[in-house]
Amino acid sequence: xxxxxxxxxxxxxxxxxxxxxxxxxxxxxxxxxxxxxxxxxxxxxxxxxxxxxxxxxxxxxxxxxxxxxxxxxxxxxxxxxxxxxxxxxxxxxxxxxxxxx
Length: 101
Description:
single chain, alpha+beta, Arc Repressor Mutant, subunit A, three-stranded antiparallel β-sheet, 3 helices, elongated
């Protein structure tokens, strides 16, 4: 076996391994998003009838605002309630569970 064949085999293995790692990383990312969405839904469901601000949810769930917003917009069970500020524009975003209304 010469070096050319050895390099070709190594290249093929590296290509396959890269694809496998990419698929596993994507799966892990999607599972993480799913878990965050379920954690938000479960928390809001347990706090029935009380809308919560993003800041409150950040402190209670230990998630960032962008993770909470991402989870809220992907969920069918979470209702987003914009509250107007002094100018009538949405100033605060409140989140609650749909089944608690």
